[in-house]
Structures are given as C-alpha cells and as structure tokens.
C-alpha cells in the first residue's frame, strides 16, 4: 500500500470514528501514527474535526500531539492552541525541545505568549526567551540549545561513559569538544570513539578544522553550508566561538524547502508565507498589492498603445498583431528570468561570471528571436494580408525578445548587487516591461513605415 | 571573512598561479580545499583554466579531484573527463563510492563508458552496472550499495566489534539488522548499542517498525519520506525486502533542490536540466519548443482580436484598453497557479481537499477582481473619455480574473489526477488562456454595447 493510500485509509477511519464518537478507538488509531503523518491528517480534516482529534490527543498523549503540531507548522499549529488556557499550553510546551517551543510561542498572540512563558518551568522558559532574542531567520533562532559537548581533557573511554550518562539529546553523532569555558575546539565522530583504545585522549583524535555557524548568520547561508559540505548537523557558536547550540539537517531541509517556495512565489508575485489553505481574505489582501502594481504598469503599456492610436486607426490589424509581439517577449523574458534567479539562489551565478551569463542570454534571445520572428512573419502575412506587415512584426519580435533577455538577466543581477532579493524582479515587472517595449517597437516601426503600409493595404 | 569572500580570494590565487605556471603552489592550495569549494572554484574558472587546475589535481590527488567533480555535478563533471584515456578514468572511478561512479559513467558518451567499465576493477564495475540497471530517478539508481548490516543473532558487544572491523562505509549511524538471507528485519542506533550491556541480543534492542524505500520508488517520493520523518538515511530494499543499499540525507537534499528547480523551471517553460551556463545553442534549442507553442497560442489570441476588428475599427480606444484586461488576468492566474502547483509538490493539496482550494481561489479571484475592476474603471474613464467604457472594462476584468483563478486551480489538479506533472500547466498556457478569454470578454461586451459606445464617443 502506497504511503498516500495508507494515509487516506487512516483519514477515513478518523472521520468515521469522530462521527460515531468512538474516542477510545480514535485515540488508539492516532497514537499509532508518526507525528508527520498526524500532521498530514490534521491538515486534511475539516476544521472542527481537526480540533476534535487534536483535543483528544492533547488530553491523553500531549507529547505526540505537540510533535504533530510542530510538523503541522508553527503558524497553523499555534492557531489550534489558542483556545486553551495558558497553564495547559505551558505544560505541553515544557515537553518540547526549546527550539520547537520557541517557534510555536512566537506565533501565539502577544498576551497569550507572555502568560504561557510565565507558567512554563523556569529553565524551559529561559531557553525559549533566549532563542526569541535572536533575529528571525538566523542560526540563533532555529538552533537547539541543548547540545551535548565533551570536555577536551577526557579520554575516548571517558567520553563514551559521559555519553552513556547523558539524558536524551538531539542527534548525537557528531560529538563536539569544548574547553573549560565552553569554547568549541573540535569534533569527534561517535564511530571514531569506538575505533580507538579507551585511553586515547580526545585531543589526539578530534578534528579541529570545524565548519560552524555564527548565531547571527542568515538561516539560508546555514542551510547552504550544511548542504554543500554534506553535514548532518552544524554547531552554532556565539561571537566568542562558544558552543551555544546545534542545527540539525532535518531543520535544514525545512529551510531549503521554504526558501525554494519563497523563490517560486516571489517570481509570481505571491508572498512567501502564503499556503494553499491560507484563508481567502488574507490571500486576497496579500496578493492585491502585486496586482495593483501590475495595474499601474499595464496602464503604462496602455498609454504606449494610446500614443499610437492614430496609426491603429489607419491600419486596424496592428491591434491584432501587437499582442503577439508582447506575449512572445513576455514568455522569453520569463524563461531567462527564471534561469537567472534560480542560478543566483543556487550560487551558480556570481558577480564574477555574470558577464558570461549576459552574453549567453543575449545570444539565446537573438537566436530564438530570429527563428520565431521568421515564423511570426509567415503567420502575420495571411492574418493581415500584407507581407510588409509580416516583416515589421518579425523585426519587432527580434528586438523585443533580445531586449527581454538582456533586461531579465541584468535586473536580477543588479538587485542582487544592491542586496535586494533578485526574485523580487518578479515576472510581473519584467513582462510589463516587455509589453511596453513590444508595443513601442511594433507600433513605432509601423508608424515609421505607415505610408508603405497604407499603399500595401 | 565570509565564505563567499574566502572563495573569491582562493579563486584569484588559482588564476594567478595558473598564469605564472606555479604548479607546486597551486597544487598545495587546491589540496587544502573541501571538494565542495573546489567545485565552486572549477565552476567560476574560464574553461581552459578549469581543465588545467583539474588536470593537475587528477595527476596528484585523484581522489580529491573526483570528489570535487561529483560536487560539480555529474553532467559537467563527465564533460571534463572526456579527454582522458579510459584506463585512467577507470582507475579514478575505482576510488569513488559506486553510486557516484555510476552517476559520472552514465553521463559519459556510450563508447567511452563501455571502455571505462571494462577497465575498472570487476567488483566496482559490477556494482556500477547493477545500479545503472535501475530506471533513472528511482531509489535504486541513487542508493549506495555498500551498506553495513548486522546479523540478527549478534549481541550488542559483537555488533560493536563487527563495526570496528568493517572497512569504511558511508554514514554508519543507523545500523541495519538482517536475517541470514539478508532480509531487513530491524534497525538499531549506534548510540543505543553503547547504552546497553554488551551481552544484550540485538533482537531485544532493535526497532522493527522500519521506514524503507523500495528500489523502484521514485526519488521524489524517497526524498519526501526522509524529509517528513526527519531521517538521516533510508534503507533501500528489493521486492523481497532484502537490504540492497542506503540513501543518505545529503543525497536527499540534492534531490529536493533539483525537484524545486524543476518546478520553478517548468512553470516558466524551461526544461529541468538547464543551468545558467548551459551552452547558448543548447539553451536556445531547449527553450524554443515552449516559445513556439506560445506563438501558436498567441496567434489564437490574435484571431480572437481579429474577430472583433470591426468593433475596434469603430472604437479604436478598445485596442488600448484590451491589453489591461489581458495583463491583469495573466498575473492573477500566475499567482493562483504558483500557489496550487507548489501546494501539490509539497503534498499540502490532495484530491480530497481540492474542492476547498477551488472555493478559496474563486473567492480570492472574485474579491480582487471587483477591487481592481473598480480601480480599472476609474483609470479607463479619463484614458478613454467614456465612463461607459470604464464599466465594460471593469466587468471584463472581474470575469477574466475569476476565470483565471478557476482555470489556474483546476488545470494543475486535473493534470495531477491524470498523473501528469502539474507544473507542466505552465504559465505559458494559462496566461495565453487569460489573453484569449480577456480579449473575448472585453471586446465581446464592447460589441454587444456598441451602439451605446458610439453614442458616448
């Protein structure tokens, strides 16, 4: 049975058990699921069912319920918690790793989050408050501050004993080694520990060439480091190189997914935090500014057409053909823009090699422009009944596609140099630019050769 | 010094040392770099320098050179190897894990790859050939077949001894337990092994509730499992549940990045395997079909306009305003399409909840359509000098944005149901659809009310 199929069966059972009120059976079923699967189930249940199932689980297995909420996402997860009294939420949050607790608390309404923090165990709330002091989207904000570290003057055997005596800590496969003031001095793998004689000093077997993340590093940069160097975790250090936390690869995967989503969204004029099931009112409000900007730029394009209204009045078929020029330019620009923006995001494109990229895109634009221009002319000829008009269309298409390629390369590179997210040069702007320029090139050329056109017509 | 800054310094030094021919210094510098950093350097060097630096490293530290090539990417990496004699390539490939070797060999020209396989060590070439028998983009193709497994009748102490005696294997933190015919029966963590008494049987401490990947599973599904369940690796099993390989989280990260790139690209009509520095001729050839399709659909839109040529002839300002309707519909559609396609990719949107998504998008479309329609009317009024024309514009905009939202939701969901990649419903098609429909709605309405318009004008 495929995972999706299995989940559908679980979902149907949950719905049925909720309907007939078979709480004991429902609880039994829910408890058998992995938190990630529970999150999927919550996501697909209608709102009231979702709250019902979660409430049952919170009452009887709050640890699992909270883990499911974390997988469900901090923002919608916090929404589901809002109705509960702060002392209960505090109790539940005590059981979570503090990075997960911080993510949820951060999304609670201000009054509630304060009430919850006051009621948590002092150590847990202290850790959460520390994390929340770091800026959003930095290493400090996403790290787990509970990190197992070994003192540098232990032997391998003592290290294994220390590990055996430690309470549960997240993912111990890199063992970080610190000096007496908790400065990070090395790392040793669990496997290495097993392979050497117990009396070997840690200092002899540890690696000192460490890849670390400063707490104030942007999370995207952290993710790139972990991905590039194929790490399972990266230690977070403060400005004095003291070990303060650990960021594990599962968090990095979430970041990589989120950043990819953000890039895809920005190119389309959608804000990064929208989801399929963001409430309609909120979605509409978030998308409206982009559409409003497009209305402004589309009006600009309309003004360009209006400037040539006299020409269109004489040769009305121009209105038919001008849309082809604009549409082709827009699509060629979107292709170039996407490759360039993604290349920047993946660090393939840098300032140093941007000239090479520009040259390439210009050649591609010119090449495809000529091919499509010729075909376009052959289409326009019968459509307009004038071979001369076909030639003007071809010329305008070549110019517009070439301009589109150059603009769609330069604008994101320039934005990146100005430290603005290049994906903000969204398709909305670039395609309007190609509309404006396409109308201008085509109608301008037509106006220039108006006498010939009138003779031909 | 930021990582990017440090790399720029290395890059400049490499260029300088190549220019003055200081091979010993250059080799020294290159050998100090991480394979991932070397790959970045190779990527940013001009082609001849890139081959020069790589050649030097292949001569003196072929293991590091090959690891850098893997990070550089199998396709461009294989390009760089092509000039060398097959016996040397075979020697170098022997040193790589067989999944990496297979990835490179797969990208070599057919004749060369056969010659190389013949010259590799029998065990290595056998492993590579086995991997290449699995379909592309499946678990079998990307797994590492060298996986450390423990026999189920060992004790914890014996297991640690077995581990100490094993040659280097990839990432041993999950220890898989197999029966005498290598069926996968359980997993035990390295940490757990250390915490129990040496005489404890593995069967008592192993987890039997295993998450596995069948060799024929699509790599995207494998990646989703590893990401959802926060795994560091997933065992690959054949149809009889025999353990045949392991897929580690670093490979999963690469898959997630590649799939995100593919989604972004497809939405824009770019094929998944294009990079910023794909040669111009190849890029142009790959993008041309999408543009050609767009030319067909844009011509369709032009025919719609042509059908109303008579109306435009009488009220020429319609040609000015019609572009606003089409452009707004196109952008609203792109927003919806992006959210829906990404929601499907991230498994947030399923068949079960698609009605909810459709309802939401329809409400968003209607809401934003009305707001923008009103503003659009206020813009069109002075632009056209007719309040009546403004009203027609508003009505056409509301209709077109609503249709755009519904089409951009339904088409990808339908494609998904037909097991076609929903991202193929690229913006190219959806925006042409909104062009066609926008022109039709606006010019159609204008024709309907032509008498009023003529009176007003």
Could you please describe the fold and organization of this structure?
- 2 copies of one chain form a homodimer.
- Chain A is mainly alpha-helical and 457 residues long.
- Chain A has 3 domains: 3-137, MgtE N-terminal domain-like (MgtE N-terminal fold, Alpha Horseshoe); 149-256, Roll (CBS-domain), CATH 3.10.580.10; 280-456, SLC41 divalent cation transporters, integral membrane domain (Tetracycline Repressor, domain 2, Orthogonal Bundle).
- Helices cover 70% and strands 6% of the residues of chain A.
- Chain A has 23 helices and 6 strands.
- Chain A has helices at residues 3-20, 23-31, 35-44, 47-60, 62-72, 74-81, 86-94, 98-107, 110-119, 122-133, 139-142, 156-165, 190-195, 202-205, 219-228, 249-268, 280-307, 309-314, 317-345, 354-384, 387-417, 427-448, 450-456; strands at residues 149-151, 174-178, 184-189, 213-214, 233-237, 243-248.
- The first copy, chain A, has a 3-stranded mixed beta sheet with strand order 1-2-3.
- In chain A, strand 4 (213-214), helix 15 (219-228) and strand 5 (233-237) form a beta-alpha-beta unit.
- In chain A, helix 8 packs across helix 10 and helix 19 (317-345) packs antiparallel against helix 22.
- The model of chain A has no long low-confidence stretch (mean pLDDT 88).
- Chains A and B meet through helix 1, helix 3, helix 12, helix 13 and helix 15 of A and helix 1, helix 3, helix 12, helix 13 and helix 15 of B.
